[in-house]
Design goal:
The protein has 6 helices and 7 strands, in the order E-H-H-E-E-E-E-H-H-E-H-H-E. It is α/β, with parallel strands linked by helices and 137 residues long. It has one domain: 2-Layer Sandwich (Nonspecific Lipid-transfer Protein, Chain A), CATH 3.30.1050.10. 26% of the residues are buried.
């Protein structure tokens, strides 16, 4: 069991992502190339990141000062809820409008308006939920 967003956890997440052909295809069709950070609201910087090139993760691990296109934060209890109970469009709007899910970088509205990005965005939560996660901080 790895701690959420740790180097080991991010690498396991990348393995699941890169094995998901439909996700890679949709993101590739959208020419999605981005660096995405993940962390908690009280973290000064993101903890883990993925670098995505044409839909495929080419780096996953610890944040080392990379420039981020997307930076998503929530408190640990929210991450635990979403990765155990699920996260869908119904939770997305409420979570963003209430500040439960914060986009420090990136425009989630742009993402949800593009079907080739919206589906994979929700799918990445499903993939994270597969991981055996230690939510302790």
């Amino acid at each position: 069991m790895a701690k959420i967003f740790s180097d080991k956890w991010m690498q396991a997440f990348a393995d699941l992502w890169n094995a998901d052909k439909e996700m890679i295809e949709k993101l590739s069709e959208a020419n999605f190339t981005s660096t995405i950070g993940f962390g908690c609201t009280d973290d000064e910087t993101p903890v883990g990141i993925v670098e995505v090139e044409n839909g495929k993760i080419i780096y996953a691990g610890d944040f080392k000062g990379q420039v981020l296109d997307w930076d998503m934060r929530a408190d640990i209890e929210a991450w635990k809820e979403w990765l155990t109970d699920g996260f869908g469009f119904n939770k997305l709007g409420v979570s963003v409008s209430s500040g439960k899910l914060q986009f420090v970088s990136g425009d989630y509205r742009q993402m949800i308006r593009n079907p080739n990005m919206a589906g994979p965005f929700l799918r990445h939560f499903e993939l994270m939920a597969v991981l055996d996660t230690d939510f302790s901080r």
